[in-house]
Specification:
Structural class: alpha+beta
Strand order of the largest sheet: 2-3-1-4-5
Shape: globular
CATH architecture: 2-Layer Sandwich
Number of helices: 2
Helix content: 10-25%
Strand content: 35-45%
Number of domains: 1
Oligomer: single chain
Distance between the termini: 30 Å
Number of strands: 5
Amino acid sequence: MKEFKIVPIRNGTVLDHVEPGKALAILTALGHPIKGSNKVVSVALNLPSGRGGPKDVLKFEDIELSAADVVKVKALSKHGTLSVIRNYDVASKTTW
């Protein structure tokens, strides 16, 4: 049975397969959590990966990262996948 550690989001951005241990540094670099915001940000650390080894995952509900944000993320993690989610579907996906 497939188990979800973090529930799917309707709209927003997902950073998956991020280097383990980098999620909190990425949150800080992006300025999250934003004081007074009601936007949900989910973080999972050291999840098992189908690609082998652990991974971190970040989900930003109702937030699409800017190009400048993506540059910051790529500077902190050697690899990962960025997915833009719209209506629970992957609208675009990039891997680095």
